[in-house]
Design a protein that fits this description.
This protein has helices spanning 5-19, 29-42, 47-55, 62-70, 82-98, 116-127, 129-132, 146-154, 159-163, 168-174, 186-189, 223-236, 285-290; strands at 104-110, 136-143, 156-157, 175-178, 181-184, 192-196, 209-214, 237-245, 258-260, 267-270. It is an alpha/beta fold. The structure holds S-adenosylmethionine.
């Protein structure tokens, strides 16, 4: 399908304005593939016609669909495996000691796509049920796309999707057969929540998250936007919390608010303390704040 440079620039501008994601020249081939289904469904003959509709604002809501179609939502259960082992071996045992008084953990998966990362985390806790009995575990998944958040909330995955990352035993134990495939069981659904949220905006619960994951989300942000995103992620973390990025992503040279954890390669910590008015005392700050 032919489309002009001007159309390309308009689409790239729309995507960047809404999400911070850049469609560099070398990734523009994605436009056609990403939008093909939407054009078919809407009976729009070409990308240039789509741009005309967008520019004239003839179909409110269409621009959201275009942005969502252009986003890369690739994900799968226990993606890259090692980070989940690192959480199990390092961060969770430490948090089990550090949060002994409140017995509450909050985890934020920013840019969670269709939820596989969030349910993988829920599985980590469910598989260590005896260690976490009596604890309140909250796992919040957020994404800028409402379409992926709807799917994450439904918690239903096709056979192909569960096969990507889950052993047969895990599928049978943690999912039940549903019309459209496999639905996460109640034990996985209980600790998880999903919300539409842009990582460039204020975090959902500032200073509160013990672990923040933001994996494979910031790769195509400009340096300026990435620095804003790191600021937001740091603000979301508890003073003694951890950030985890995707394989090959780093904070080094991109922000002064986060630094590599010398004890756990692949995890990052805040460099600054919270304002003293907001700092945890001997009693867990969140227990005090929320009663
Ligand atoms: C490649 S997926 C990664 C999903 C998961 N974190 C993983 O590693 O498997 C990137 C996700 O980030 C989301 N995203 C992109 N820009 C975002 C933004 N500004 N705020 C929140 N989510 C964003 C996309 O919609 C997409 O679902």
């Amino acid at each position: 399908m032919e489309f002009s440079d001007a159309s390309c620039r308009i689409l790239a501008g729309l995507l960047e304005a809404r999400t911070g994601q850049q469609l560099t020249m070398s990734r523009r081939w994605r436009i056609e593939t990403a939008l093909a289904a939407l054009l078919r469904e809407r009976g729009i003959a070409s990308l240039d016609e789509l741009i005309t509709i967008l520019v004239m604002n003839r179909e409110p809501g269409l621009s959201n669909q275009v942005v969502e179609a252009l986003l890369n939502n690739e994900t799968y259960f226990f993606r890259d495996r090692t980070p989940f082992d690192l959480l199990s071996r390092h961060a969770l045992p430490a948090l089990a000691r550090m949060r002994q008084s409140s017995r509450r953990l909050r985890i934020w998966s920013a840019g969670c796509s269709t939820g596989q990362e969030v349910y993988s985390l829920a599985m980590l806790f469910a598989e260590q049920e005896a260690s976490w009995r009596g604890w309140t575990i909250d796992i919040l998944g957020t994404d800028v796309s409402s379409a992926v958040i709807d799917k994450a909330r439904a918690g239903t995955y096709t056979q192909f999707e569960v096969q990507r990352g889950l052993a047969i035993g895990q599928t049978i134990r943690w999912f039940e057969e549903a019309d459209a495939g496999w639905r996460a069981v109640e034990a996985l659904r209980r600790p998880v929540r999903f919300q539409v949220h842009n990582v460039l905006e204020q975090p959902p619960h500032p200073g509160d998250f013990d672990i923040v994951l933001c994996r494979n989300v910031l790769l195509y942000l400009s340096a300026d936007k990435r620095s804003i995103a790191f600021d937001r992620l740091a603000s979301g973390m508890a003073e003694d919390g951890w950030l985890m990025l995707g394989a090959g992503e780093t904070v080094i040279g991109q922000t002064t608010r986060l630094a590599a954890d010398p004890e756990a390669r692949g995890l990052y910590r805040r460099t600054e303390a919270l304002p003293s008015s907001d700092r945890r005392t001997g009693v867990d700050r969140r227990t005090v704040a929320r009663g």
